[in-house]
Amino acid sequence: MNILVIDGMGGGIGRAIIEKVRANLGGVGITAVGTNAIATAAMIKAGADVGATGENAVVYNAARADCIVGVIGIAFANSMYGEVSPKMSEAVSQSHAHKILIPSDKCNITVSGVSGVSLTAHIDEVVAKLRQMSH
Fold first, then answer.
1. pLDDT per residue over 59-72, tens digit each?
2. Contact status, residue 70 vs residue 43, Cβ threshold 8 Å
């Protein structure tokens, strides 16, 4: 399974996702794409197989992924303080890959029914869903 992890800002959430996936799932490929070089570097350091940065990297890799993981903002144009371009969000939303999106109020998006759950709990749920998909 080819997992695409997309993150921006400092790459902290993407880093945490990759570390948890590496610790709990074997035999998966992880591609890290950052909206900026700092995010990409953090995810590569966390154990991604390959990494790339920017709009074209999101467009290219979203079309080739089996699963896309990141905060919900990766599917919305101009989220994450403008780091997600319209082309990036379009590539994510139009990809045939399964998407596992983590709610984040930092993206200025609220998902009704999701409240009081920690980021760690969301990442644990990501790993559980990936485990189900890989079997």
1. 999 999 999 999 99
2. no
